[in-house]
Design goal:
Distance between the termini: 13 Å
Structural class: mainly alpha
CATH superfamily of one domain: Iron/manganese superoxide dismutase, C-terminal domain
Largest sheet: 3 strands, antiparallel
CATH architecture of one domain: 3-Layer(bab) Sandwich
Bound molecules: fe (ii) ion
Helix content: 40-55%
Radius of gyration: 17 Å
Strand content: 5-15%
Order of helices and strands: HHHHHEEEHHH
Length: about 220
């Protein structure tokens, strides 16, 4: 479904479909400095997170692709949608790579606030209000036991909030929670422990200041088609 849904119409042409957002197998450059997201995410956490954890997933997913004869010129999303057919190494690292590429891309220093336009309307329709959405998302993020991610996804025409364990994500065929990820928060301790120690809720609350709703809206437009 993911592969066949690809299209490449220009996002800037009024009335045309937005450009489909797809993910490759290589680690993209971080779109800001390690210190750019301070004080909400400190520079050392960012540097270790990007150069060690995320770089490891990128390296290992490429390795797994070679080992399992995956054509890396195709979108990573195709592997995720059929991940049950691959190894545990592929599942963990394809998920880890996708999740972190998404995570870097939806944060920025000049962020925060609330969504606008069609995305804001959809949030109001599906959750009742922006505040109700925030509460549901924070609950998903706080209550994910151990390591994992909380997500806002588009499932058909409906927005949903949920979470996944470890480096699983809602694109995976093995996931209980499915949809196209509009945004997600990394709640592994490596994402916040240096600055927040055991206080995951404080990290989650602070993280809203970094969420770039413009980028989330681009993903919404892309997946809505
Ligand atoms: Fe992470």
């Amino acid at each position: 479904m993911v592969g066949s849904a690809l299209f490449s119409a220009c996002a800037s042409s009024e009335g045309s479909k937005a450009e489909q957002i797809i993910t490759g197998f290589s680690q993209e450059p971080l779109p800001y400095a390690y210190s750019a997201l301070e004080p909400h995410i400190d520079a050392m956490t960012m540097e270790i997170h990007y150069t060690k954890h995320a770089a490891g997933y990128a390296k290992n997913v490429s390795e797994a692709a070679t080992e399992e004869n995956v054509d890396t010129s195709k979108p990573l999303e195709e592997v995720l949608g059929n991940v049950s057919k691959y190894s545990t190494k592929m599942r963990n690292n394809a998920g880890g790579h996708y999740n972190h590429e998404m995570f870097w891309s939806i944060m920025s220093a000049e962020a925060g606030g609330q969504p606008t336009g069609a995305l804001a309307e959809a949030i109001n329709t599906d959750f009742g209000s922006y505040d109700a959405f925030v509460e549901e998302f924070e609950t998903a993020a706080k209550t994910r036991f151990g390591s994992g991610w909380a997500w806002l996804v588009l499932d058909g025409n409906t927005l949903k909030v949920g979470s996944t364990p470890n480096q699983d994500n809602p694109l995976m065929d093995i996931s209980d929670f499915k949809g196209s990820p509009l945004m997600g928060i990394d709640v592994w301790e490596h994402a916040y422990y240096l600055n927040y120690q055991n206080e995951r809720p404080r990290y989650i609350t602070s993280w809203w200041n970094l969420l770039d709703w413009t980028k989330v809206a681009e993903r919404f437009d892309s997946f809505k088609g």
